[in-house]
Amino acid sequence: xxxxxxxxxxxxxxxxxxxxxxxxxxxxSRVIVAGVMTPPLxxxxxxxxxxxxxxxxxxxxxxxxxxxxxxxxxxxxRAAGMATETRTPIGDPREALLRLVExxxxxxxxxxxxxxxxxxxxxxxxxxxxxVTHAHCSVLVVKEDPHETA
Length: 150
Fold this sequence. Notes:
150 residues, five-stranded parallel beta sheet, alpha/beta, 5 helices, two-stranded antiparallel ribbon, Rossmann fold
């Protein structure tokens, strides 16, 4: 089984990682840990019509932070006896995760839920909602457990 777990710096991501480490997966399962780097839009390159394209760059700090987070999660999963790989794609997290699902032939994607509702969800978007709706594989969204003691 090929499992993709999307991680970021949030406690919601930590819950998803804990869930994956506590489950018994079929023999030969492989977990791909993905941390998506989302660049801010920057001005167009000189000489290019500003209305045509925008360049996107990721700050070195964001690259280092994302790589460190992905490595930390990979170490946790390996300590739990799991075979792992990592990916750090650049782009919108919703679309980057869906691309990985297709490119890596993922069987299950695991995400933590930020638990946003109402206006916050509308304004900030929801990665898990988008992935649940558009992924061509099963999606497990790990929600906050009010009884969890961490």
